[in-house]
Amino acid sequence: RDSFDILLLPGDGIGPEVVGAARGVMDLAAEHFGVKLRYEERKIGGEAIRDEGGPVSDETLEAARASDSVLLGAVGHPDFDDAPVRPEAGLLKLRKHLGAFANLRPVAAVPALLDASPLKKEVVSGVDVLIVRELTGGAYFGEKEEGDERASDLSVYTKEEIDRVARVAFDAAKRRKRRVTSVDKANVMATGRLWRKVVTEVSKDYPDVELDHVLVDAAAMHLVREPGRFDVMLTENLFGDILSDEAAMLPGSMGMLPSASLGEPGSPGIFEPVHGSAPDIAGQGKANPYAAILSAAMMFRHTLGRPDVAEAIEQGVSVALEAHFLTADLGGSKTTEQVAEAVGRWIGAGEGVA
Ligand code: NAD
Ligand code: IPM
Ligand code: MN
Fold first, then answer.
1. Member of which family (predicted)?
2. In this predicted model, what pLDDT tens digit does every residue of 264-299 receive, in sequence order?
């Protein structure tokens, strides 16, 4: 196919800045390949609470379902920190509505950024990890109780929820270095023991993929001590949230990590940077747009079936990074727009087309 309907949900803080940058790159890539992109833009998060009375409207959920894919910026704003319904709830509802249970968060060392990482070059060099985070279960979605004296977040996992996300991880490993590290807390948590059991069962269908199990506290340590030991890291919702922010320090900034949130084949995916709305730098042109741009590339690869367009965008990103188009978080001084323009200029660079 060469014509797609994309729902843009820029959201709060730097969301509109990075989605604007990614859209510009997508348009240039689409033009380069003769692909037609039709956009609809809607509100989510704090701006939707303000203008529509809730963090995501039913119309927006329906528009997401009717689209080929969703490109999301970020949600979250300090104005709503004490609101009864927070902006973040809109994103959780959207993920659930689309059944986006598998969140792919690739983390790769970038040669041009080895100095941007707080970790030693020898530790970071050559790292290529894919975090597969379960996204619609666990403590995020269990029964909640919220009071001034007592609060609880119930963490529930079913066999089926673990099985389906594990298969995503093993399938991905088959196309990579054929290694899955499953991360749990089986020494303390019942969900962790079920997780381990189900993942071990699933692994029998993948005899050519090596599986090991690591407890989450140790995994957090290994991730900065020897990240090169990981290929695919499979874990539950909350652990995956935490470990992926830690992993952002391998390339050196939250602004470098893209993600794809996928459900059943054929359902629209949600493509979003791993970072948040960064209220501390919003509106200043300082936001690093690479994560959003790379999320757009993931969209072309994972749901639009156009890996050629994805690769061309990724090549543009590589060249822009090599040419030191770096925002402040990476030690540079380029603006969000300057980075996006540079990526656009080098789309498909190196593919042999003049
Ligand atoms: P954050 O990711 O927004 O920011 C953490 C730090 O990283 C900040 O110093 C910020 O300036 C920096 N940073 C993040 N993205 C950057 C980028 N693209 N370029 C340059 N610097 C960047 O996390 P936080 O401050 O803990 O959360 C702020 C709000 O965002 C909260 O309301 C939170 O709930 C929300 N949030 C939303 C998402 C999402 O929409 N997917 C993800 C994480 C956090
Ligand atoms: C993320 C974010 C979200 C999460 C929040 C904003 C709901 O931190 O996408 O990593 O915890 O999943
Ligand atoms: Mn997070």
1. Belongs to the isocitrate and isopropylmalate dehydrogenases family. LeuB type 1 subfamily.
2. 999 999 999 999 999 999 999 999 999 999 999 999
Ligand 1 proximal residues by C-beta, below 6 Å = 14, 18, 74-76, 88, 91, 254-255, 272, 275-281, 287-288, 291, 327, 329
User: pTM of the predicted model, to two decimals?
Assistant: 0.97
pLDDT tens across 2-32, in order?
A: 999 999 999 999 999 999 999 999 999 999 9
**Fold for the domain defined by 128-249:** Rossmann fold (3.40.50)
For residues 77 and 83, the answer to whether their CB atoms sit within 8 Å is no
Angle at 76 between CA 143 and CA 238, to 5 degrees: 40
CA-CA distance, 239 to 235, in Å (whole number)?
6
pLDDT the model gives residue 349? 81
Q: What is the CATH number of domain 1-104+254-354?
A: 3.40.718.10
Catalytic residues: 140, 185, 217, 241, 245
Ramachandran angles phi, psi of 136, nearest 5°: -125, 20
The residue ranges of every structural domain in the chain are: 1-104+254-354, 128-249
With a 6 Å cutoff on the Cβ, whether 92 touches ligand 2 is: yes
- Which atom of ligand 1 lies nearest, measured to the CA of 279? 28
